[in-house]
Amino acid sequence: MASLTVRQLDDRLKKQLRLRAAKHGRSVEDEVRNILRSAAADTEEFATLSPPAEHQERHTNQTHDAARLRVLLIIGGGIAAYKSLDLIRRLKERGAVVRAIMTAAAQEFVTPLSAGALTGGKVFTDLFDTESEFDVGHIRLARETDVIVVAPATADLMAKMAGGHADDLASTVLLATDKKILLAPAMNPRMWENVATRRNLAQLTADGVAIVGPNAGEMAERNEAGAGRMAEPLEIVAAIELLRGKTHALAGKRVIVTSGPTYEPIDPVRYIANRSSGKQGHAIAAAAAAAGAEVVLISGPVDVPDPIGTKVTKVETARDMLRAVEAAQPADVAIFTAAVADWRMAEPSSQKIKKSGKGAPELALVENPDILATVAHDKSLRPKLVIGFAAETEKVIENAKAKLAKKGCDWIIANDVSPASGVMGGDRNTIHIVTQRGVESLPPQSKDEVADAIITRIAAELGGAKR
Ligand code: CTP
To answer: What pLDDT, on the 0 to 100 scale, is given for residue 216?
Structure first.
């Protein structure tokens, strides 16, 4: 029996139920469920029946709620509101308790029903709704959370916040809270660039409000491009974790990460490159920053946004990357995830190479410096822990072991990048951590999870623990 409707409750009982629910911080429905559960447990014939799995899970969740991150998500009105549904999913996957408020405009894009199905609770929409005010109330919404996330944060919501307005539930809660606030702005690029929005943004930043994004790219409106796209759900999750100071496992450590491909010019318009997206390297940099490290990310040309809390140096060629890595020393850890081009043109042409009519030109190539091997073998540069990646399409572990010896690093993180694996450009990765001590193979995971797993192991290694 999934639901039970109870009719003819008198007003006094209803009032008592509401008060009791409010006292316990539950919805009335949850309160009734709780009363029934304890009544059932007290009754012998009920006690032999175990509650359905769904209820067991809810119950367990309630008992652990104190330890779980509580997020109040305010969904503003914009086309990006659909991404907020994915954000709820991503937060729940990480064990967070999510409550949602939707503005009137947000409900033009997604329904409270969809958001509620994902949060697993009531979605709050109205400041003057007596039932929800009685049940929870805007002050409790504002206080019973660890962080408030506004996604998408529209120009209007930002203006209201900067001006201290409180004319609907969202703005009232934002004014009434004493918790950390994170905004994920999303709007048309011209609105984002508008002086009024710039002014509001400066005010909000000065007020201590954290901002993630917006990213540059194509907008939903045709022929519109520029900064204004809402940050991706996983970027918002990373920003929340950073805001919360997720762990201090790498506090006081300096970490250098290389990421993305390198571009080696052939002539002013052509270059040698590869399919690396930078997703894994950037995720590692983000995870290191979330663990409290000071992170220098040296990145080749990529489309992924700069991770929050990292210092990013953008380079094009392998030689530029090596210079940037050397300039970023000293460090405690260096993680080389970049897919550095092995070769460059011996002499790139200063003019565009033309078809000569005598067949294809000969492209004379020379080998690029090996950044990882240079750093690993240089005693004056070498960080305590040097980690390389091995992108392999066959004999993954065997080749990784050979690379560990050849490059002189401490760990090689091997991954299968054959086309069938979907790793290059994709969101998942399967890695094997190869060290002098042996091989640890991790199950297929998202690149964020892989990044977390690597950072956890680095922290253990620096802390003296042996894997
Ligand atoms: N690497 C580097 N500089 C280079 C080439 C590679 O720093 N010029 C680093 C990569 O960042 C990675 C590791 O070396 O951490 C292994 O990269 P990979 O391309 O797999 O190895 P290669 O040495 O290029 O070997 P091969 O292409 O022959 O497999």
So the answer is: 80
Q: Which atom of ligand 1 is nearest to the CA of 387?
A: 15
> Quick check: 264 pLDDT over 80?
yes
How far CA 29 is from CA of 97, 117, 135, 139, 246, in Å, comes to 17, 15, 10, 21, 33
Q: How far apart are CA 277 and CA 417, in angstroms?
A: 12
Spatial separation of the C-alpha atoms in residues 430 and 390, rounded to whole Å = 12
Give the residue numbers marked as catalytic.
Answer: 274
Domains of the chain (ranges plus CATH)? 68-243 (3.40.50.1950), 246-462 (3.40.50.10300)
Ligand 1 centroid distance, CA of 20 (Å): 63
Probe target for ligand 1 pocket from 342, 367, 392, with the most ligand atoms within 8 Å of CB: 342
**Which of 372, 406, 418 most suits a substitution to test ligand 1, by most atoms within 8 Å of the C-beta?**
372
Rounded to 10°, the helix 28-42/53-64 angle is: 110
Its pTM stands at 0.59
Q: Give the model confidence (pLDDT) of 201-258 as tens digits.
A: 999 988 889 888 888 877 666 677 778 899 989 889 888 877 876 567 898 999 999 9
Q: List ligand 1's pocket residues with C-beta within 6 A.
A: 258, 318, 336, 338, 340, 342, 368, 370-372, 388-391, 403
Q: How far apart are CA 130 and CA 280, in angstroms?
A: 48
